[in-house]
Each structure stands twice: as C-alpha cells, then as structure tokens.
Sequence to fold (375 residues):
Amino acid sequence: MSFIWVLLIAASVVTAAVNGRMGELTAAMSASAQTAVTLSLGLVGIMTLWLGLTKVAEEAGLVALLARAARPVLRRLFPDVPPEHPAMGAMVMNVAANLLGLGNAATPFGIEAMRRLDELNPHRGTATDAQALFCALNTASLQLVPATVIALRAAAGAKSPADVIGPTLLATACAATAAVVAAKLLARAFPRPAPPA
Amino acid sequence: MLRHALEIVSAWAVPLLLAGIPLYALARKVRVYPVFLDGARQGFETAVRIIPPLVAIVVALGMLRASGAMEAAAGGLASVTATLGIPAPVLPMILVRPLSGGAALGVVGEVLRSEGPDSYAGRLVSVMAGSTETTFYVLAVYMGAIGVTRYRQALPAALLADLVGFTASVLVVRAFFG
Fold:
C-alpha cells in the first residue's frame, strides 16, 4: 500500500504541475482531509449502536445460528476459517445487510468480521486470504435493489425508474464472481511473509 | 412488485432487528444492557481508529482528481471506449467509480440530465453505478479498522471485479434494452 499511496500523490503533483493546477491541488488536500474525518465521524454513532447490538446477538447465540445456515457456502469460500468461528457469523450479517441495502448496518458488521478474521491472522498488518476475499467481495456492491440510482432516475423523469434492477443484479453477480475468482487465483501471486520464528 | 416487497423488507428490517435481538437475548438470560455497552464501546473505538487510514486515502484520491489527471485520461481513452460501446459522457463513471461515491453519483446525475434516463447512456450509467462500489473507500475502512497496511491481492481483485462489472453492464444493457 505504501507504494500505491506514494504513487498516487506523486502522480497528482506532477499532473497538477503540468496542468498549472497547484492552487486547486492544495485546496483539495485540506478539503479531502476534512471530508475523510466527516465520513469517519458519520460512522461513529451507527457503529456504536450496531456493534453493541451485534454483541448482544452473539451472546444470545444468534450469530452462530446464522453462520450454521450459511456454512456450506462459507466453507468453500473461506477454507482457512474454522466453521464455528465467530468471523463466519459476522460475515453472514454483513452480506445479509448488503443485500437488503442497509449500508449503515453492513459496514459495522463488515468491520466486526474483519476484526474476527484478524484473530486468525499470524501476521498482523498483512491481510490473510480470507480478509482479502471478504474485502474484494464487499467492493462488488451486493445489493438487491440499487435504491439511490432508482431515486436519481425517478427524479430525472424516467418512464420506469426501476427497469435497471434486473440488469444491475446480473452485472453485480458478474462482478462478485470475478472478485471471488480473482482473489482466489491472485492469492499465490502475493505470498504471505514467513511465519515468525 | 419485487421492488415493493423489497422496500417493505428494507423499512422493517432495522426496527425488527433492534427490537427482536434484545428480546431474544433476554429470553436466553443474556445480561443485555452491559453486553450491549461492551460491544458498543468496541464500535466506537473502531470508528475512531478508521480516521487516519481514511484521511490518507481520501486525500490522495482528492489530489488525483484536482490535478486534472481524470480529464487527461478521459481524453486519451474516449476513442477506444467508444468502439467498446461506452459513450463519451459515461466514461468519467469508469474512472471515478472506484475512487469516490459522491463523484460517481454526480456523474450519474449529469448523464441522466444530459442524455435522458431512458437513453442507452442513461441506463448504462445507472447499471454501472448500481453494480459496483467505491473500492478504495471500502478497502480503506475495512483494512484500516484492523490496522492492515499490506492488502495483498485485495486491491487487484477488487479493481478487476470493477472492470468485470463495467464490462458486464455494457453487455447486459445492450441485451436488455437493445
């Protein structure tokens, strides 16, 4: 990530110099930093609420119940994670919330899943195969109804704003499949560090 | 019909979960309130821990946009993508989608306004927006929350998934709306 980060910044500075946009660049730096903090702070309330609720659901045995129901799929996708591990339950909750379009709930569940997966990580700071696959899957917008897009289409006066649901689902399925296949195949190209002595 | 049913599910899901989970836990003799606070404290700490990685990523991407690199890339790519069935107004979508959710919605709004929501470009941009996510943001939040700095295959896999999502959008919109 260090390389990509420095590359992004260096490329921006060079391009801005060529385009004579140094002033805009400087303004964008402080504005973006502010945006990032606003985004994070916007998550504080909802994260506090949902992770509190998740903990209750976990103690009551609900999360394990969900994970058991989804076990056949999860075992194939995440062979390195023990089937009874709490990470499985958190991942199921995340995917379910995503499908329903509950983005506010999906993010806390996803972070909880990542935290649980990290308990199985011998190299803190380096993603495991399971973590990489789970993240890649989450970047493929697993939503049954793209509510925001439909609202925008309705506002623009579309004859049938929701007529993109079917095509969107198909495209999403393709993207999600690609995420899984690519994460699996690329795992070998990104070896993990040697186990600590 | 399906959409209506899903809207009802979306509206009811959160309140039912918020009431149902604690009720069930109480019946199972869980000490609901202290357990809730314990989990909530973790949630709060995690949300705060996301701030530094998110600032790092969002600033780098904001700089990239402000530098004019997007316009330069769009200019170079326009002739290539036109032959692939991606009209010029839709092209910014592909460049902006993985970087910024707000900017992507801006592109959707702009194309819907200029080309019309029921045009090929309007439908394509809608499907593209709905079938992909703000990749860099998702990675920064999920990886940053647990302090992972080496993403390994996550970034290439996620970007490849975006590319497949865009390609599939073109094919599917052509097949559906011809």
About this structure: The radius of gyration of chain B is 21 Å. The first helix of chain B runs from residue 2 to 27.
